[in-house]
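Tutorial sheet, problem 5. The two components below are modelled jointly, 491 residues in total.
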Amino acid sequence: MSTVTEPIPLPELTTDELARYSRHLILPEVGVEGQRKLKAARVVCIGTGGLGSPLAFYLAAAGVGTLGLVDFDVVDASNLQRQIIHSTRDIGRKKLDSAEEKLTALNPSLRIVKHETRLTSANALEILKDYDIVADGTDNFPTRYLVNDACVLLGKPNVYGSIFRFEGQASVFAAEDGPCYRCLYPEPPPPGLVPSCAEGGVLGILPGLVGMIQATEVIKLILGNGAPLVGRLLLVDALAMRFRELKLRRNPECPVCGANPTVKELIDYEQFCGIEPKPKEEVKLQNGIPQMTVRELKQRMDAGDEVFILDVREPYEYQIANIGGTLIPLNDVPRRMTEIDPGQEIVVQCRSGARSQRVAEFLKQNGYDRVANLAGGILAWADQIDPSVTKY
Amino acid sequence: MTIFIPTPLRSYVGGKNAVEIEAATVASALAQLTAAHPDLRRHLFNDEGKVRAFVNLYLNDEDVRYLPAKEETAVSATDTLSIIPSIAGGSPFMPCGER
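Model answer (structure tokens):
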């Protein structure tokens, strides 16, 4: 497997670097040569969030010479529970600037390359081509498949991690020898009646665990030492604190890395993942569902209108804040539909309006005619109607 | 055998992270599991009764897709079956409703 391209002679270590990396240098598995490999290495982290934070931090500490960061987001208070590269005073700041500052403070001699953009089919090959290793810290399926395909097309190893609540996955998708992410999961799940990324929740420590596994794999690939997670899927269950390992096989019929690939260039990954492009102007109807604003709802409530507010969040979310809706968590809706009167006007509500939209669509498909989605959810309610409602 | 249930599906098996099933094959273990917990069925199988493309089944550490007998592979009491859905950034993309 290709790691660092060798033709250029490895850079020498300065006196300062010899001191800084002394604990590496005395390891026979690293040594001066390994440290020079790290200095020469170019690694790009896709995302500087939960996984990217520990990843970038440890790669910087370890002396990886060139660190690319791809992100377009700004720091939000809700990030800080896990995205340890960002601090409270960084709220509202670009994640790239915040991350660069911390990484440079830790290791000033690094070259940090900031790519302030969403990774897309149009720019991925151009951005990733200048790096030796890609570390995927993305939180969504379109980008996951995009990074995978781009890495296969470019012949770059893809160090993968992903998390959900208390569970994580990690592997190394070795570009040339496979297997790749599509061998593991040929198709993305359809965007169904599920919590969106922000709403599923995650134990803050978990991306730390998984991101550090990714960092370890990156370092091993650079050093060319140890047994990389190639062909193995590592599962982390933080609640049980159990690590399991499954065999990952190359799919001979894989559309990207198989014998007869059908995907030879980057495709439209939003479409591949079943995500409709968002219309530019504000819409009153979305997928046939009327979008009620919080102001409209407030007016209706004040006027004493009979509106059934269906809150589809989880019970613990309801405890944090609610606007007096009837709680039926999203996953329970299909089997608790008898509790929802089809004759009544229904306004479905969640945190931001995403889950409730899906439930509204689901109800409409099941014969509920008078169903609207509360646009912006309880967050919009807190912003525009009642600031005493806790935002979370 | 033991069937490990991933976090997104635990609500359909009473919150348990593992279920014990006595079965002769992978297929019959899954059939018993979904018979006992009918809500699970649509999460694991598509309308044609095939395992969904974003759900992987592992018998011990081996992907069932690559076993010679696939889901007809014989199992014993000490075997484990793991259901491994694709996950991303705090999002369990499991279809929770018929769409």
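Marking note: Confidence is low (pLDDT under 50) at residues 193-197 of chain A. Full credit if you identified this.
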